[in-house]
Amino acid sequence: MKKVVLTVAALLLALLCAACSGPMGGSVEELLEAPKLSQSQTLVMEELNRYIGGSAKLQYPRRGEFLSPFVFKDINGDGREEAVVFYGDEGSESKNKYVRVALLAQEDGKWTVLWDEEGLGTEVEAVSFSSMYGPDTATLIVGYASANLKDKFLAVYTYKEDEHTMQKVDERSYSEYALADFTGSGTDDLVVLSSLTQPGPMEVSLLTVREGELQPVTAISLDSLLQDCAGIYTSLSNGQFSLVVDGNTSGGTLVSEQLYFDSRTGGLASMSTKLTANIPTLSTRVGASLRSRDVDEDGAVEIPVVLGNVSAFSTEQRMQWVSFYDFAAIDEYQNNFEKEAVSPGRQIPSVLPVPTGRGDSSRQGGVPDPSGEDEPESASQPASGADSQSVPPPEEAAPTNEKVFGLADLSYGYYMRLPLSWKNRVAVERLGSRNWYLADAASGETLLAVQILGPEEELVSGGVRLGRAEEYTQVAAVGRYRIFVRIRPDTGIDEAEILAGVTVLS
């Protein structure tokens, strides 16, 4: 009751505020009403209610591409849209209250129920359509969930032309699923991650349509580090699809694995085996926000690899040097990042080895103050990082094959992409508790500065490091904080590349 009162009070307050700035149509009662149906939805609903002889209660998918209980799609390839509706019967005496799914077709302006069937759960988790049976037929994939949202079941439906109805061709328990042409056949394949209630490592099954039938092709167990699924992504690299899975470990860290279809063996294979490098171990990171993602928007999903903590924020474990790798696009994993020295004789732990022939990674020492101003009280020794354009990379630098390099600020939830040539040649310094700046580790020249502001705070001006407030550009908003970046002029930095390369972490 308290929640309802608070909701009504909030709506009344919104109306009063709107009245101060101008007229606003509608009343509190109208605002509290359910979303109004379109004309097509209304006609479909009327026919569905007539068909069941009662009042259908619409069931909304919880996530995914389709979030409406009505999905209009050309299911049978006749050039006209049919309607798929998810609903429950309010008058039903059934105790399980399972979701029902119906297919309706329109002819001469009138809708008719062609098919109606009980689903596999009390909730609709996700809805997808696929070209598994060919480009002219839409296959319906529905993920159902129980009331506790833990037990999930997947159903695959196809249209039967001769009967003008839908047929369920596969059902199974699952935790996540994905659709893509993994086998290179020209039509979608289905990959299903096993249910989290299944004992042992998570298993990934591949199903594809052969001779007109959906058949299991192969299955593979994920690395035992992945205790449950935190995210699943389809990645396209070099013309081939692969599957990237983020998983939580028993120790609370996040790791990733990547699978692909090996045409030679006819089965799924791990990219770790192909590269002779254990991707889950390489990608181990703390915090749920640093997920795999298409960080450069080229269709390939890159996996983050933490190179080391930034020493200026080492006590808070706040900032990290992070590279993103497209492991499907490389033949051999390599890395040339130098571990940082936090204090003499002590290095920040990293899952990555220091390549041979690089010498002492702590040789760069401190960064001189380019402005002549006193150091902030909170400043610490600089972190080693990447190459600035004013200082070419050393000739003995080992090759690198990551696609994206930069800084992840885990406390404030953003990632700043930096040029790959800056690796091992830039340093981070603190400016108070939140703000920081990036400097050329060799010359000490300030390259850019970042200010993180709360709701009522304003940009600060000051010297070479901070610059003028009007030189800053807001690049992100994360929760109650806003992220501003100022690129120092005349440094040769591609300002647009830096400003566009700030990503909010999920």
Identify the notable features of this structure and list them briefly.
single chain, 506 residues, mainly beta, Lipocalin, 3 domains, five-stranded antiparallel sheet, 30 strands, 11% helix
Give an overview of the whole structure.
The protein is mainly β and 506 residues long. The chain has 3 domains: 35-173, Lipocalin (Beta Barrel), CATH 2.40.128; 183-288, no CATH class; 319-504, no CATH class. Helix content is 11%, strand content 38%. It has helices at 2-21, 28-32, 39-52, 271-275, 279-282, 463-466, 495-500, and strands at 56-58, 70-73, 82-89, 100-107, 110-118, 123-130, 139-145, 152-160, 165-173, 176-180, 189-193, 203-210, 213-221, 228-237, 240-248, 253-262, 267-270, 285-286, 303-309, 319-325, 341-343, 346-347, 404-409, 414-418, 426-431, 435-440, 446-453, 473-478, 481-487, 502-504. Strands 1, 2, 3, 4 and 5 form a 5-stranded antiparallel sheet that branches. Strands 14, 15, 16, 17 and 18 form a 5-stranded antiparallel sheet that branches. A 5-stranded antiparallel sheet has the order 19-20-23-24-30. β2 (70-73) and β3 (82-89) form a beta hairpin. The longest helix is centred in the first third of the chain and has 20 residues, at 2-21. This is VCBS repeat-containing protein. Residues 378-390 have a biased composition (Polar residues). Keywords: Signal. Residues 1-21 form the signal peptide.
